[in-house]
Design a protein that fits this description.
Number of domains: 2
Order of helices and strands: HHHHHH
Helix content: 55-70%
Shape: rod-shaped
Number of helices: 6
Strand content: under 5%
Structural class: mainly alpha
Largest sheet: none
Length: about 130
């Protein structure tokens, strides 16, 4: 329960069913917009909820609130698609290189068997 400046406290049910005139609401919104008080101060003094005050600001404010727009840049989408295509191409190339590497290793093994020479050992020992 909040306290008001006159020194007494209203119960929740008393605060819940209060009605304020449109003129009162407009004047309080004007005070906030002109900087004479803050939303917190207004809520504390008049035992109001923040939700109510922000609703009043939304209804009675002369300022237009900016609307949120989410814009997906076409160029971003194109960049993502191009990068995905590039990744696929690089993965394909890595796969080809792996096949070539395995082929060369098999050829070395066959040559070692055929010529009875340890090619891998000689290759790694030379400076």
């Amino acid at each position: 329960m909040g306290k008001i400046s006159s020194g007494f406290t209203r119960s929740v049910s008393e605060r819940r069913y209060r009605h304020f005139s449109e003129e009162f609401k407009r004047s309080k919104v004007a005070e906030i917009l002109e900087g004479r008080c803050t939303v917190s101060e207004l809520c504390r003094v008049h035992e109001l909820s923040f939700t109510s005050v922000y609703r009043w600001i939304s209804l009675y404010s002369t300022h237009q609130r900016p609307t949120r727009t989410i814009v997906e840049s076409k160029s971003d989408t194109q960049k993502i698609l191009a990068l995905q295509k590039r990744i696929a191409e690089l993965e394909r190339l890595v796969g080809q290189k792996q096949v070539q590497l395995e082929f060369k290793e098999k050829m070395i093994e066959l040559a070692e068997e055929l010529y009875k020479v340890d090619i891998k050992k000689k290759f790694t020992d030379t400076p």
